[in-house]
Each structure stands twice: as C-alpha cells, then as structure tokens.
C-alpha cells in the first residue's frame, strides 16, 4: 500500500483536464487489492450460477454485475423505503405518478483514458462517438424508449500507466480514487484494457454513499465505437454498464423465478443471451426473451433498445440515490 501522502501528491499531478488536452502521465506501483474487494460487494453471484452463464459463445462476458435474488430483494426494499419517504414528504399522491413527471436527467461525464503508450490511447473523436452513442441509447434515438437521460462530456484525463492498463481490476482501488471527479450525479467513465472475458464493469448507485471515489464505470477501450472487438464494438458495453450505474439489473436477473429485473415490460429470461438469436423464450411466463435489450448479453449488433419501464426505473433510482 502506498502511503497516503504519496497518493495525495499523485492525485494532484494527474487532474482531469479540459477536453482536448493531455494530463501528465502517472506511474505507481501496486496498492492493496481494495478495489477488487470493494467490487466483490457489487458482483457477488448466486452460488449456483456457473461461470459459463456469464460468457458469450465467443468468450466475452459483459461483466459480473449479477446479484443474488436475496441481494436484489434487499436493494429493492431499501429503494422503496427511500421513495416512499420522498412521496410522504410531499412529492405527490403516489410514487409512480410523481416520479413519472421527473425532469430529464443530464449527466456530466469525466472520461479517463488509461493507456500504455499508444496502446489504448483512444482519440478524442472516439470518445465523442462514445458519448454520442450513450445519448442515442438513452435518448430513444435508436428507436427504443426515450429514457430522458443525456450525457455531457466535461473533461478527458489521460494516464500513461502500463500496470494499470495491464490489470485494471487489480489496480481499481488505486486509479479510481486518484482520477475520480465530481459527486454522486457525475459519471466517471474509465477506458482501459480488460483482459480475459470481460467487457466492463460498474458500480451500483446504492454503493455511492459508502464508497464515493470508487463510483463509476470501466470499459474495454476496444469496445468503444469503431473498436477492434468483433461483435462488441458499437459502444454498447458503455451503454450496458451505465445502465447498471443508473440502477438497472440484467434482464435475466433472478432467472424465471422471483421478481426478475423489477421492470414490468422486460419479460423474464432464464439465461443471458449469446450472440444474436432471432427468437428465444426461456421462461413459462408471458413474453419472449428481451434479446435486443441493452441489459442482456447479446452482441452489440443485436442490441437496439431500452424499454419505457427501464426508463422509469432509472428515474426512480436517480431520485433515491443520485439526484
Ligand atoms: Zn451487466
């Protein structure tokens, strides 16, 4: 573990800078694996779920953002308690009626490029395309529901650090506190190399209070629009992970049983979708699997939309945790 004084000094040396400029490079040794341990809270899986469920047929998993049914139930209980409190505090006669009228959400974005020399040093144009993709996904520009969430790029930081780039899971507890900007309604988006089968990961809104500087989304740089990962290079890994950051679960949360993803208009789904099947219906409850939803695991080329219910959930969770 690096002494705190050294960490503070480094933080001062690596500020986020206005878009289009470069920040000084940073180089540090490893810290304790605090990030990994903290992430463990968010990423606990049901014990029965085999690892293979989280891989697509060509070896890429979106992330490890699954909650056990018990964890999701606990989150929902807390969320509903907060929302009920807000409604009783004079925000309207009913939770759904008052929150449906919520104002559009505008999210400031600090984009942090972690690279190793030329590797992963994505261009400003690519970053702009990623922001545009988020705005299209969350603004209904894809033909899906308009979630009324928009994203504004505030600044880009660039950090040349081969160690962080080579193992961002290990160094998450190092780079996030040093690069993080803003508060609970600010999105910190980190692009870096993610080895193995992952395309990214996120933190959930209800984790912000206990660990604010770890808040944010990490994506594989080659998943950005025009990137090099075949079938996963339209920028929807960021769309998917930001969905978690906004409080959405996977469409296959809880499988065919229980409360699912707590969104009524996304039919229950037993397993993550691999590739891009034209049709899949894995649960006895009504409705085909939402294979084209951003919160499933299909190819980017297969993903087309959020639903109105997901938009409502985003606004409810935002009201409770990020407003
Ligand atoms: Zn996910």
Protein traits:
Collagenase (Catalytic Domain); 6-stranded mixed beta sheet; 32% helix; 323 residues
Structure overview:
The protein is an alpha/beta fold and 323 residues long. The protein has one domain (16-46, 56-73, 100-322): Collagenase (Catalytic Domain) (3-Layer(aba) Sandwich), CATH 3.40.390. Helix content is 32%, strand content 12%. The protein has helices at residues 4-13, 34-43, 69-91, 95-100, 124-139, 162-166, 172-179, 236-245, 308-322; strands at 17-18, 105-115, 149-160, 187-192, 200-202, 217-220. It has a six-stranded mixed sheet with strand order 1-3-2-4-6-5. Strand 2 (105-115), helix 5 (124-139) and strand 3 form a beta-alpha-beta unit. Helix 3 (69-91) packs across helix 9 (308-322). The longest helix is centred in the first third of the chain and has 23 residues, at 69-91. The model is unreliable at 1-55 (pLDDT under 50). Bound molecules: zinc ion.
Task: Set out the fold topology.
Layout: H1 4-13, E1 17-18, H2 34-43, H3 69-91, H4 95-100, E2 105-115, H5 124-139, E3 149-160, H6 162-166, H7 172-179, E4 187-192, E5 200-202, E6 217-220, H8 236-245, H9 308-322
Parallel strand pairs: 2-3, 2-4, 4-6
Antiparallel strand pairs: 1-3, 5-6
Helix pairs in contact: 3-9
Bound molecules: zinc ion.
Zinc ion is lined by residues 62-63, 65, 240, 244, 250.
